[in-house]
Every structure is written in C-alpha cells, then in structure tokens.
Amino acid sequence: MISGPSGVGKSTLANQIKKPFAVKCGYFIDGKFEKADRPDTVLTSALNSFFGELIEADARNASQFTKWSVRDIIGNASGNDLKSIPNLQKWLAEENDVHRDRALLPSRNKVTSSSIRLKFLLCKIIGAIACKVHPVILFLDDLQWADEMTLDVIRMMMIDPDIHNFLFLGSYRENEVDGSHPLSKKLHDIKEQGTNIVTIAVGQIERECVNTLVSETLCIPPSLCRPLSTVVHNKCCGIILFVWNFLAYLHDEGLLSFSMTHRQWLYDLSKIREEEIQQDVLLHITEHMIRHVSKQIQVGLKFA
Known about the structure:
alpha/beta
C-alpha cells in the first residue's frame, strides 16, 4: 500500500514498475477511482481494458494455459456476470464459440446472490490469469473512494491461498482515511487473516531535493538557484507535482523566462514571493490551468 497526500507521486511511483515488469512477461492491471464516478465499475473496467490489450496484442501469443484457466473459471458464469467485461468474452470467443454460448446463458439468481457471485468471479479471474509465466500486479489508485464490493474483492484476493504469483498494489490519500474509514477496516481484517501488508508512505520532498530539481531543470548552479527553490518549496509544500506545475505556471505568467541575451533563465523573485498560494496550491494551479483552456473545452467539460 502506498499512502500520502495528493500530488506527492504515489501513482508515478507505482507505475515505475510497469515497464520492467512487462519485460518479464508480467501483466500489470491498473484502475483508478474517481470521486464523481461509480466506484463499483473500476475493477471490471480495469479487467476489461486488460483483456482488450490482449486482443490488440494478438491473443494467439497469449499463454494457452491462461486461456484454459480463465475458461474453466467462467464456464458456468451468466451473461449478467460478464457483461461488464465484454473484452473477456471476445478474447475467449476467438477460440471456441461453444464455450462462449455457454457463458452467455441468462442468470436466474437474485441480485444479492449475483453480487456475491460476481465478487467470487472477479477474484478467481485474477487467480486464473496469474501464473509463473505471467505474474500479475493489480494496481488500484485512490482507494479512499473505493466501494464496499471492490474492497471485499481485494480482501478475498489477498487472503486466498489458491492465488499465487500475484501482488496487489494500492494507493490512497492518508489524510482522507482515518480509523473508521472502510479501507482501514478492510486492511485490518486482511491483517487479522495473517496476510502481511507493507505500507510505503510517500511524503513531501526535502528543500535540498527541490533545489536540485530546480537547478537541473533551469541549468543553474545549485548555489545560485537556492533563493528561487526555497520560495518554490515553501509555496508548494514540498509536493513534487505542485513543484513542476508551479514552475510551468511561473513560465506562463512571465515570471520565469529564458533570456537569449544572457543565455540563461531569469526570474523575478520579488514577484514570485508575492504569489499568495500557500493556503491552497492545488486550487490555485487548477484555476490557472482552466484560464489557459479554450472556451470550447471548458463548455465540453461542463457537460462531460
């Protein structure tokens, strides 16, 4: 589990493993919760995207054993169970239409039992995909907005003794998750079942790190850019994402610019100090970004 406030680089840290993991023939499945969207569709959407990638990458190159394992798991699943993962049906249907028809039989069970069956099915699909040849990492971002059903599936996957070659990776905003939060309770239940959970806390970067970043970005000796980096660190609270965005903001506002005459970056430190954004850096940068977005895109976002 990766914890930390918004913008410190939790998602970036998790995604660093994606490319080297793919080289080892591993499957990296990821999804992200959004506060305004339905949380109960994140996991199925992540799996649907994953199977879509398998189809695009030519499913014939996929492990035949993986196909057999997945087919065995969903053999008795109903069409209602699988309708949220259409790419899974396409992936399997390419080989045998008989099994596809069998998987699309209408469900006769009640909604409650269907929900329980879906959780069990999602758990078993992950277990069927994960193997020695193709280990699996499932990364779910912003778990502070996760729904109860998804948290149950996570718990089931993490304590299931039959699931091997699998790693669950999650991130959440620690300032939005207290002891009474559903995520905290679920993690406690997982630990009670004997599963070890490693938590990585990602926080603010040190003042010296910001100075190094600004120095390398602007090609200015560390000693000369320290006044600027100190102001940037204070205003951005040491959050790396805000540091990058704030530097871009200063450039857009003309407070930081490259001089062809002097052949170096110049900045107006006194005016930068006057920027009052310490209280809400994210809101300030968001407002700045919106001002630079065309009216057509702004109208489109309102109706999205």
